[in-house]
Design goal:
The complex is a heterodimer of chains A (861) and B (245).
Chain A: H1 5-17, H2 27-33, E1 43-49, E2 58-64, E3 67-73, H3 86-90, H4 92-96, E4 105-107, E5 117-119, H5 122-139, E6 144-148, H6 156-165, E7 168-170, H7 178-188, E8 195-196, E9 203-207, H8 223-234, E10 237-241, E11 254-256, H9 263-277, H10 282-288, E12 294-295, E13 316-319, E14 324-327, E15 340-343, E16 346-350, H11 351-359, H12 364-371, H13 375-389, E17 394-397, E18 400-403, E19 407-411, H14 420-433, E20 443-444, H15 453-457, H16 484-492, E21 507-511, H17 515-518, H18 522-529, E22 534-539, H19 544-549, E23 552-555, E24 563-567, E25 573-579, H20 592-603, H21 612-619, H22 636-646, H23 653-659, E26 661-666, H24 669-672, H25 692-703, H26 708-711, E27 734-739, H27 752-757, E28 762-765, H28 767-772, E29 780-786, E30 793-802, E31 810-814, E32 854-860
Helix pairs in contact in A: 1-2, 5-20, 6-21, 7-14, 9-12, 9-13, 9-14, 12-13, 16-18
Chain B: E1 4-9, H1 18-27, E2 37-43, E3 50-56, H2 65-69, E4 75-77, E5 83-85, H3 95-99, E6 106-107, E7 162-163, H4 169-172, H5 179-183, E8 189-193, H6 200-207, E9 210-211, E10 223-226, E11 236-237
Chain lengths: 861, 245
């Protein structure tokens, strides 16, 4: 390591000393206090970050004689405040695990079965990958594919590789929360799902398990529960909406055990009640949304004459002052929010009036029937939303007086359901009605108010007749979350989408992604990878996918490498950090960036103006004296040193080697709160309360002959319909859902310390349901899923566990079991629920997002 | 002399079990030895169900039944309240395990090098490990502590010897809090001098009603709980971790 312990302490001791309150010292302080001469061993504390989760918590690695012996939370990192989750502390095992891929491997047997391997030199393995990759690149199209799971830290080195190699990119979002991202990008233009303003929220709807269990918007876990606990002490009221109580309801004041997949209906019923109770924020709706826009019988906005042929006319609103239709952005306009108006002899309703008519049928009684809840509970929640929203109230922060609407929703992974896009739109509309969007204490979805590229793009969805490997801009999925299992489905059935075998990739690089382990549906993925000519995997572990299909495996490091920059914000304090190697990678593994530098060199795309180094310069904005020379391979530390210096950090990367984290201070109200900005909402409005372009896309899809299954959910308002899964035969009577456990989230990374915490797969089932089927707690059961479109069936056997805290019509299995990697500890753990889920039509959302809900038949095995 | 104790806020515990893993890494405990255990409980019938969590370290009782039954004085009370185990002196009779009403004692049935999760003798593991098993071996555990100068940290983990939570005595002697308190994401676990009214532990204990486990047993535990309630027959354990055999 570059830093001597003494140097590190000199700085860190000062930096952290004031943060300690009463009682106990941090490791750093005791080291400052102790005389180094007394220590029998060489001991240093190397700042780094977690690698196993998505939020990269700050860490201090205690290193004894070159060995990492403990990972603790970095006390100065605002994201985790000196603490860690079980995964964070347990991943220490990965440094040493001899079950990792130790050397580059080349396959010696046929594909489609567990691999047999010979060890190879880096030179030979990289040469082979480079040769195959270049041959595929030459053919163009979708012949060369690069697929990654979660990009850790800033994606600069991934984007640089895609840029330099021209690869087609696949990622993981469609299995995570992307239906929610698309809904929010569409509706308010931000890239995120739903989270509260924890410091100020007073009433929180926790929709799904994210706030207390393994994951959530922008953070993977720790920060949300930390903030939630503080908010609860302050008096926050919390309602948990989830078929399982174990999700977040143990922290909730109220549990609404909703039937799986019916969230859209509950949200629309809440809208119905908010309107009935008159608890709506007319000012927000009239000023910042398209709710007052006039809509004709065709569902389209009434528009002014366009100023030129290229432009579209401005949508009109009904001006109450003049009694005429005027452009919505006309300075003095007083738009009517409700009503029906006649313009040039034709009748128009405001979008809000249409919504009011639309939600009239979503009564609490109707929703209670669909959602399996009590109508009185729905009425009560709507009442409390309205009361707590304190519509009309303001609060002053940093001298800015802003609307105060302390009601919000926390939702993330629950968006992965058949109506996910529209369900998240509906939930957002609940918050729009009370004016909570971006208000203090209200609804947030990102840490800054910055326009995401899809906001403009979604004004006119591309609906093309010709299509491609992931059906982008197609008549099938005009909004498209890039679902790699659907890509697998296309590879297996190109004719179905008017494609030929030419679309099948020749070469795929799998970078830390394990489709056979992580993604449903497993059969679809298996068959698709079987058709790929050459597969290379970059991974610390031999993933199931690599074991069955890789030709070459390149051993990557885990924490022991440089990555970054990494945001360390907790959403209120701005901070940045880097991942630094607390020890050298073991065996022959290398840091990911090292591998790409070497691979690009072998492929002849490292140097020059179009090369990987130039791409890195562009991605990290390294210019002038900080730009990497384009004719020399740099050390990875040098890349980050240049970057840190370009950020004017004294000492460059040494700043992070000493301090671990660059805490920049509180995020100003003008950056955080859209009402404090010079132009409210950074100018990203009117918010799309009414989804006109969804309707336009629907018509275009119909015109191009797309089947109803593709276009039926492209509606301007969320519309409930029976789910595909509900059409399975009556014997398939339970809803299978899946979830993460905080101590076991490792579809790519086996950690024996964590596997011990959650050794065996199980299925949670309500005792009443189980007893009726003759199933005792602990019995082995057979779970058979059914695809209502294709009539396919899938089966696993698993241990049943009685839970009173689950709906009697649901059964739930945690993710990430099922021998996802080759490792002695993952054997006989039981099956992954991914075996039971399907992909393809009916089991993906209108945005091509994966659904995690299927009907199953459960019997004693 | 400090009077150490632990106060756990069950209203803050999310049941994540980070404390269990931190304990295992800090103290290098072998497989299945869970000095810290987090219970996850479910009560009531659907939909009037309640789920809650309770970490359970050693109670470090003032009137420790395990100390009374130890025939060789291996289990003893320190003046600062910590219930210590001298691993060199333990003869593995398991009387302490029988006497303890809290089930916090773990007997080593196997040689530790055969029970450390992975094969630490793998020839490809680098020489920097110096043959340490496990590779993350904590050098502080092998020292003698206290005026009595006995090896009471970590556990030795030798076959035939009993071990349990030490309140991370090796950290406490350095002025650090135990690993479980240090890691807790929601700061639910507070450790400190209960006689010092300014300690975080004493402050938390004053802030809400508290209980101790099995008060009737007369053991006078040094671990206090605030929030929730003492588990009873209505509390069903869920997601229990059983030893891997």
């Amino acid at each position: 390591m570059g830093t001597s312990r003494r140097d590190f302490l000199k700085v860190s001791g000062v930096a952290t000393g004031t943060a300690i309150t009463a009682g106990f010292l941090s490791q750093l302080e005791t080291l400052v206090a102790a005389s180094p001469e007394l220590l029998q061993v060489s001991e240093e504390f190397v700042p780094t970050t977690c690698w196993i989760g998505k939020q990269d918590c700050g860490m201090l690695a205690r290193v004894i004689n070159g060995r990492v012996v403990k990972l603790e939370g970095h006390p100065a990192n605002p994201r985790n405040n000196g603490t860690l989750c079980p995964k964070g502390v347990g991943q220490i095992m990965s440094f040493y695990d001899p079950n990792r891929v130790k050397t580059p491997l080349i396959r010696t047997n046929g594909k489609g079965e567990p691999g047999e391997w010979r060890q190879a030199s880096w030179e030979e393995a990289l040469g082979l990958v480079a040769e195959e990759m270049n041959a595929a690149r030459e053919k163009g199209g979708s012949k060369f594919v690069w697929q990654k799971g979660r990009s850790k830290a800033k994606k600069f080195y991934d984007s640089a590789f895609v840029g330099a190699s021209g690869a087609l990119k696949l990622h993981h979002g469609a299995f995570c929360s992307d239906a929610g991202y698309r809904a929010l990008e569409y509706t308010i233009g931000l890239h995120g799902v739903l989270h509260p303003d924890m410091r100020h929220t007073r009433y929180l709807l926790c929709w799904g398990w994210n706030v207390t269990n393994a994951g959530g918007n922008k953070f993977c876990w720790l920060t949300w529960p930390q903030q939630l606990v503080e908010a609860k002490e302050r008096g926050l009221k919390m309602v948990a909406i989830d078929p399982r109580q174990r999700s977040a309801a143990h922290f909730a004041d109220e549990w609404a055990p909703i039937k799986s997949g019916t969230d859209l209906v509950l949200a629309m019923a809440l809208c119905n009640q908010l309107i009935a109770n008159g608890t709506i924020d007319r000012e927000y709706l009239s000023t910042y949304t398209n709710a007052p826009f006039l809509v004709g019988a065709d569902g389209l906005f009434l528009r002014a004459e366009p100023e030129s042929e290229e432009e579209e006319g401005k949508p009109l609103v009904w001006d109450e002052a003049s009694g005429a239709a005027l452009p919505f952005d006309n300075g003095n306009v007083e738009p009517a929010l409700e009503g029906e108006f006649t313009v040039n002899g034709e009748n128009f309703k405001t979008a809000f009036q249409l919504f009011k008519d639309h939600v009239a049928e979503y009564t609490p009684e109707y929703a209670a029937e669909v959602c399996g809840l009590e109508a009185s509970q729905i009425v009560g929640i709507a009442q409390e939303i309205g009361e707590n929203a304190m519509i009309g109230s303001t609060i002053s922060i940093d001298g800015h007086t802003m609307p105060y609407r302390p009601v919000a929703i926390m939702a993330y992974h629950m968006s992965q359901q058949e109506l996910g896009f529209q369900a998240l739109r509906a939930m957002q509309m609940v918050m729009m009605l009370i004016g909570s969007i971006g208000a203090v204490g209200g609804q947030f979805s990102d840490f800054t108010w910055k326009e995401y590229k899809n906001w403009a793009k979604f004004e006119h969805l591309k609906v093309k007749d010709e299509t491609n490997l992931y059906l982008k801009d197609s008549k099938y999925f005009p909004i498209n979350s890039n679902n790699s299992s659907l890509v697998a489905h296309v590879i297996n059935n190109p004719d179905k989408y008017d494609l030929t075998d030419d679309v099948i990739p020749d070469v795929v690089i799998l970078h830390h992604v394990n489709p056979l382990g992580s993604f449903p549906d497993r059969n679809e993925n298996f068959n698709a990878y079987n058709k790929i000519g050459f597969v290379a995997a970059i991974d610390p572990w031999l993933s199931r996918t690599a074991d069955y299909f890789a030709d070459v495996v390149l051993p990557a490091a885990t924490i022991e490498k440089y990555e970054g920059p990494i945001s360390a914000t907790d959403s209120y304090i701005d901070a940045e950090t880097l991942r630094l190697p607390p020890m050298d990678p073991l065996f022959q593994s290398k840091g990911d960036i090292d591998i790409y530098l070497d691979l690009c060199e072998a492929a002849g795309i490292l140097y020059g103006e179009e090369g990987y180094l130039a791409q890195i310069n562009s991605q990290l904005k390294l210019e002038g004296e900080y730009a990497l020379p384009l004719d020399r391979k740099p050390k990875v530390r040098e890349i980050f040193d240049n970057w840190a210096k370009s950020q004017e950090l004294e000492g460059g990367i040494e700043f992070f080697e000493k301090n671990g984290v660059n805490v920049k201070g509180e995020i100003a109200a003008t950056k955080r709160y859209p009402y404090a900005m010079e132009e409210p909402f950074a100018g990203i409005f009117p918010h799309r309360f009414y989804g006109e372009s969804l309707l336009v896309a629907q018509k275009e899809m119909q015109d191009l002959g797309a089947d109803e299954i593709y276009w039926r959910d492209y509606t301007p308002f969320p519309v409930w319909r029976e789910l595909t899964a509900a059409q399975s035969p009556p014997g398939y009577d339970l809803d299978l859902i899946s979830y993460h456990m905080i101590e076991f989230k490792q579809s790519r990374t086996p950690v024996p310390l964590l596997i011990e915490m959650a050794p065996k797969q199980f299925a949670e089932i309500n005792p009443k349901t189980a007893r009726a089927k003759g199933i005792e707690d602990g019995d082995e059961i057979s779970v058979v899923s059914h695809n209502a479109i294709t009539d396919e069936k899938r089966k696993v056997t698993v241990i049943a566990r009685y839970r009173e805290g689950i709906r009697p019509d649901a059964i739930a299995m945690p993710h990430h079991y099922g021998e996802y990697v080759k490792h002695p500890w993952v054997k006989d753990q039981g099956p992954s629920p991914n075996v039971l889920f399907f992909t393809g039509e009916g089991y993906v959302a209108q945005t091509a997002d994966q659904t995690y809900l299927v009907k199953v038949k459960v019997t004693k095995a | 002399m400090a009077n150490y104790g632990m106060v756990i806020d069950l209203d803050k515990c999310t049941g994540c079990r980070a404390c269990m893993v931190a304990c295992k890494v800090e103290n290098n405990t072998p497989e299945s030895n869970l000095w810290m255990y987090v219970f996850r409980f479910e009560e009531g019938e659907y939909p009037s169900t309640k789920t809650w969590f309770m970490p359970r370290p050693c109670m470090h009782c003032e009137n420790a039944s395990c100390v009374k039954v130890c025939p060789v004085g291996a289990r003893y009370k320190r003046l600062d309240g910590i219930t210590a185990t001298d691993f060199d002196r333990c003869i593995g009779c398991r009387y302490c395990e029988v006497a303890c009403p809290y089930g916090v004692n773990y007997f080593n049935w196997q040689k530790p090098e055969e029970n450390y999760y992975i094969d630490w003798a793998d020839p490809d593991l680098p020489s920097e490990l110096n043959g340490e098993k496990p590779g993350y071996a904590n050098p502080d555990l092998d020292q003698a502590y206290g005026s009595e100068n006995r090896r009471i940290a970590g556990g030795g983990h030798d076959k035939g010897v009993m071990e349990k939570c030490t309140f991370c005595v090796h950290r406490v002697e350095k002025g650090l809090e135990p690993a479980c308190a240090n890691i807790c994401p929601t700061h639910a676990i507070k450790f400190g001098d209960l006689d010092d009214p300014n300690s975080e532990a004493a402050q938390l204990l004053r802030s809400k009603p508290s209980f101790r486990l099995l008060e009737d047993a007369g053991t006078s535990p040094r671990v206090f709980y605030v929030g929730q309630h003492e588990p009873g027959p209505e509390s069903r354990q869920i997601e229990e971790i059983s030893a891997r055999v």
